[in-house]
Amino acid sequence: MRELTYVARHSVEWREAPDPALRSGREAIVAPVAATSCDVDSAILAGHGFLDPPFALGHECVARVVDTGDAVTTVATGDLVVVPWSINCGSCGHCRAGLTAHCTAVPHTAMYGAPIGGGWGGLFSDLVRVPYADAMLVPLPDGLDPVAMASAGDNWSLSWRLVAPHLKSRPGARVLVVARGSIGLYVCDIARALGASDILYVDPDPGHRKLAESFGARTAETLEPVRHGFDLAVEATGRVDQLAQTVKCLAPEGICESAGNHFRAGELPLLDMYLTGVTLRVARDNVRAHIPDALALAASGTVDPARVVSHVLDWEQLPDALPEKHLKPVFVRDST
Length: 336
Known about the structure:
Blueprint lengths: L1 E7 L2 E6 L11 E9 L2 H7 L9 E2 L4 E8 L11 E4 L9 H4 L31 E3 L2 H4 L1 E2 L15 H15 L4 E6 L2 H12 L4 E5 L3 H9 L3 E3 L9 E7 L3 H8 L2 E9 L11 H7 L2 E4 L8 H10 L10 E4 L3 H4 L7 E4 L4
Parallel strand pairs: 9-10, 9-12, 10-11, 12-13, 13-14, 15-16
Antiparallel strand pairs: 1-2, 1-4, 3-5, 3-7, 3-16, 5-6, 6-8
Helix pairs in contact: 4-5, 4-9
GO molecular function, one term: metal ion binding
Protein name: Alcohol dehydrogenase catalytic domain-containing protein
Keywords: Metal-binding, Zinc
């Protein structure tokens, strides 16, 4: 089989790899049918990551099951499934507590698309081994388009987690979104659908701002801190200076969710945060626990993740098209 491999800044290529094989009755082999780039993939391709190439890339896809072990009960050959980005067993203490990104059955940070917890390959591959199929794979509900939901294994479900629980406990909250990619736009759509009273989306890209406006958000090119302006903020830029500006906008006891991958150090206004009493969460997402709820919201028809998809491209275009600057390209192929 082939796996798309990151080889240098702005450069990926197909490389041959052995076809994956089942190693136990609990495993499955899947073939991605719609795969997309995460916002962090763009940073990696731009040379901002901390891992040296080469390594297999990709950790967001909907796939078709092509083989299962004898002990797999929740999916069958031919099913369309969402593949979560992190490897998790579903049965250790952390997994049972919903902390699937911290599974103790595998090396810490085990994931697809980056070799920082072992070599699990990437989801821009012709075939992928899923070591804990019942725990990891989530059947795609009937009626949902694999292209629209290609990001459900990470960015879409992460975006749900960033705002949905907070809006449930704080109905009508004012929401600030400071972003550069798909996560912020998904957040705008979800926040609107779940009853946010006001959404301000900040992004220098005019095309992104126009899309955010169609989701009901006010927009700005740059962030001017508004004291006590927002109950909830989502920062998804990966820039500490933007995170610092974001937390200055929170109301007393406000919450900031940082979804940016901060590869560089920086300073935060800790005294101001202390005096305002803000909560800041900077965390990798335990996405597997949220996928069913995020898919249910997508199936409700009150949101439209397909509108964030910027390009639908053929699988064979991956080496040439992935390094280009696209908001949310989805690469598709027929695996039947």
